[in-house]
Write a structure and sequence with these properties.
Elements (H helix, E strand, L loop, with lengths): L4 H22 L15 H8 L4 E5 L3 E8 L2 E8 L2 H10 L6 E4 L2 E4 L2 H11 L2 E3 L10
Antiparallel strand pairs: 1-2, 2-3, 3-5, 4-5, 4-6
Protein name: Lipoprotein
Organism: Microbispora triticiradicis
Keywords: Signal
Amino acid sequence: MRLPRHRALAFAAVAATVLSSALSSACAGPDATPTYGPPPTVEQLAARAGCTPKMQIDAAELRQGHCHTPIGDFFLTTFATQRGKDEWMDQAPEYSPHLVGDIWTALAPRDVLDRLRLRIGGDLHLKDHRVKSPG
């Protein structure tokens, strides 16, 4: 069975759109946040950054580890809930930039965060911790 030309073109356009969407999802960069699965642990984030964290806090509501790497020193914090992360960020010092992900944060000087972001992703928050910064 042959399709009329306009139906064949419509089918090709739909197929191209689906393929394009699949490829862009598969090739997403470090800023991409998956919408499935559990959020990363401190250890998983640290592994992406090339370190084994020295755990500072290991509590039910949050976990925090320190990393010392060639790109610099930083703290990684994961939270049990979004609310816990929001409350923590409300108390975070306004002068300290953070990377912020899905119920996790990274704290370090700006130059370290810029390099760390290439490895673990996240949104850069410079002053207002609820609003990501451009770039």
